[in-house]
Amino acid sequence: MLAAVACAKPQPQEFHVIPMPESVTLLDGVFPVAGADIECAEEFDALSAKAVARFADALAAATGVKPSGKGLITFEKDDEMAPEEYSITIDPDGVAVFAAGLNGVIYACETLKQMLPAAIYGGKPAKADWVLPCCNIVDRPRFGYRGMHLDACRHFWTIDETKKYLDVMAAYKLNRFHWHLTEDQGWRAEIKAYPRLTEVGAWRNGTMIGKDWSSNDGIRYGGFYTQEEMKEVVEYAAERGITVIPEVDLPGHMVAALASYPELGCTGGPYEVWTKWGVSSQILCAGNEKVYTFLEGVLSEIMDIFPSEYIHIGGDECFNEDEGIPWDHCPKCAAKMRELRIKKGPEAKHQLQTYVMNRVQKFLTEHGRMVIGWDEILQGDLAEGTTIMSWRGVDGGIAAAERGHDAVMTPNSFLYFDYYQSKDQDNEPLAIGGYLPLEKVYSYEPFDGIKSGAENHIIGVQANLWTEYIATPEHLEYMLLPRMCALSEVQWCKAGSKDWDRFSASLGHTFEILDAMGMNYRQ
Ligand code: ACM
Ligand code: ZN
Known about the structure:
By secondary structure, the protein is α/β, with parallel strands linked by helices. It is built from 17 helices and 18 strands. The structure holds acetamide and zinc ion (ZN).
């Protein structure tokens, strides 16, 4: 018996946890988990206890054995640890986990689950080798902000689909869900003071077919989330250590709002919820006080729903030069520019956008929130404390950090999951373009190009999943996975500690996990 157990010592290459923990020491022996008691120290908060209970339920369901004193798994509180840190010690009699709080507890559970047979994710009794290898693990993340974005506007995802997205994020230790809720093609968040946003703005009269810009499938499309549903998502995410950051994209990407309330535009419309992709020329009027009343009303309700430290206010792709800038022909905008002493010229529109962004930023900071915006807003005089999301490559994030602003790196060149995963586009589902294979995602180093001393302004890394060409949850998951697993090591693993060979050797186990979770993915 003892000899057999000793032989079960796993080799390092058999340790298939993603993201790889900071320190793993494998020891002789195993701990059989079926029937183990699971104890969570009373000092932990209710959500931590609930996370441990979820782990216990998963274990009982998958092993088919209820806790019956066959060994012990304990969760102890260690207030000296960093907020997301945890340690795990496994010996033949049991498991001891230490963590300071919820995220550490969750990540210990996720690491333990990945060390077990993938059937632990299946929720039903499965015949498998239900043992954990004896080991010592100490682990904590490199970045505090580990995000994944979802465009719920170009295509709409149900609450259940959104929760499944959060499930797989939690499994790979991501902790920020950037929820893109407003767009030209659909407004998705119920706002009680402005009911037409969802009566009118949540629905479009058809969608362009494939990449045929002159087409329309003629199928009315839309949907929205009630405030109760959004709160349910916030709570579900919080239980999994994830903060939901809502985005209200302004002053561009607002056609659905303009269709709902045409007086918010420079011309008064009429406007239609957009049926095509791309950058619309139609934007909020910057000279009309009603627009600021509208934005403050919307953001007040958004703040009530979302307790996140950050609110994302967009700021990207405000101007479509080819189709003209409505601000150039609007008396109200002209008066506002005179009031602000903005000089005529090519920079004028950027200065006016800066005014809009900074005014909204001031409103949100007065309400105790911090603001994130896309890197276009660096073009103006950015209010102190604004965080930049660098999407047009890495330059915006680098410039922001060097100007003393925090930045989240989401460069399209490495982290836009709507790009193709293969050069053989004919055998891939339709994508927006680009070429972003798994290995390129994995290769991303967030400090590349950053001057020494500015690194501490890079607060994290996120991938974005825009859904113009993604209409089904199966396709969504295919674009997400396994690239999000590669992202998780970029976010979690210390600089220089990633290892592509080790990561790729773990993909077989990753695919078993994704199968057990019922996720679609690219092989
Ligand atoms: C973006 O991709 N327009 C932020
Ligand atoms: Zn105007």
